[in-house]
Amino acid sequence: MSPKHTERPAVERALQAVEALQLRLAGAHAAEFTALELTMSQAKLLYVVMAHGPLTMSEVAGQLGVTLSTASGAVDHLVSAGLLTRADDPANRRQVHVAVTRIGLSALEQMREFGERQLRSLFDHIADDDVAVVERAMEILTRAVDAADRRTDAAEPTEPPTTQTRRSR
Question: How far are the Cα atoms of 84, 120, 126, 146 from residue 133, in angstroms, in the given order?
């Protein structure tokens, strides 16, 4: 454990609790999730493209942290399944834009509904006072995500100014 982790043992306990919950949920609902016929990598790709809007293939690779070749293969698979589209950029024929189709959005909606059903079934076993504690925890985590996003946005370098090319003589 690094020194920073020993300074906040409550964080370590919370992380362990989240991991234990995730494992229990995965085990209890694996059959329903696998019925969606998407691998975790495919679901991640769909989420990335949906969250960021149409992306170039390079942006997809960057978002997923994979090579361009790996991203292209994954996109091709989801295009053939009808979950994503690939379209050439009319302004730059070497660029391809990837977007989620209606079928892809439907698959993402099924996953969201699956997660909601899981949580609703859990809340059936939790007293209202404790549900309020969970609600408060979600509000706190949402604010932390917002703060982390702001910090990331501030740390990202701005686009370099466009340089003008010399005109041909």
Answer: 39, 15, 10, 20
Contact 82, 75 (CB under 8 A): no
The model's pLDDT over 22-37, given as tens digits with 9 standing for 90+, comes to: 888 777 767 777 777 7
Q: Distance from first CA to last CA of the chain, Å, rounded?
A: 64
User: Which two tokens mark 12?
Assistant: 């370590």
- pLDDT score of 127: 97
- What does the block give as tokens for 150? 């702001």
Rounded to 10 deg, the angle between the 9-34 and 102-123 helix axes is 120
The CATH number of the domain covering residues in 39-100: 1.10.10.10
Which residue type does 64 have?
A: L
Q: Which residues pair with 85 in a beta bridge?
A: 99
pTM of the entire predicted model: 0.69
